[in-house]
Amino acid sequence: MIILIGGQKGGGGKTTIATNIATMHVIESRYVHLYDIDPQETATLWASLRDQNMNLPVVSSSQGIHVGAAIKNELRVLQSKYQDIIVDAGGANNDALRAALLLADLVIFPIIPSGFDMWTFKTLSNLVAGAQSCTKTFKARVLLNKVSTNPARAKREIEDCDSLLSGFDNLTRFNNFLSERVAVRNASNEEHRSNRTSGNLTVGYKKEDQQDHAFIRGREPKQRLTLRLSPDFCRKVKEIAFKTEDTVSNIGFRALTEYIKTLEK
User: Fold this and answer.
1) What share of the chain is helix, strand, coil (3-state, %, to 5)?
2) Which residues form the CobQ/CobB/MinD/ParA nucleotide binding domain (predicted)?
3) E strands within 97-244?
4) In this prediction, what percent of the chain has a pLDDT beyond 70?
5) Which terminal CB of the chain, N or C, has fewer other CB atoms within 10 Å?
6) How far apart are the C-alpha atoms of 40 and 34, rounded to whole Å?
7) Could you tell me which of 2, 1, 5, 24 has the C-alpha nearest to residue 108?
């Protein structure tokens, strides 16, 4: 199952929701993968920091190239390997979001109950309609996030959301909602504090202890590398991606080979 967390606007809590869903699925012993196609790469950073804590179950993750055709190809490969794929698409109406929509089984649009955020319903509805006209029908749900903890105010916020949603038959609000909680906002930072390192060592562990613990749990040491690619190389990746259904790794290798040839001229 592919669960896409996306939207047009930033700040709605998409990455927080995506990482929490991925973690819950891991705890439930689901074979899950967190796929980060948000240019901000926050989910990738979160996964990297989490890997430093030997006491936490591993959340498999990877970072996608922000090219629509390449993302479609990569998601198809991941589908054959995992029970669930949680896609963090970030806040933008772009090629990455639209490509992921074409393969999603469930789309979650986190929305803050404010005018600026709820005004995006029309754009989201058009995106869903466009994707559903090209592929299978999937479920598109709005998840209200950061709802006021004041009962009277929360009731008004939910009513305002439902009023605006009533004009779109392909968007439905989850019955449940998430309230504005300081604990939720600070959760990732608290986890980071508990994982803080000194050099390459997690505080409280000797290097030998870390290596032994990793071996016992079957975990190989990880190093995550983020590359800043030139615009010319990215264009070459896009050109090749649209001509093939190959995996991202092969597309990237071919593009790199051709890009190097241009540098040698």
Assistant:
1) 50, 15, 35
2) 3-191
3) 106-111, 139-144, 172-173, 197-198, 201-202
4) 68
5) C
6) 15
7) 5
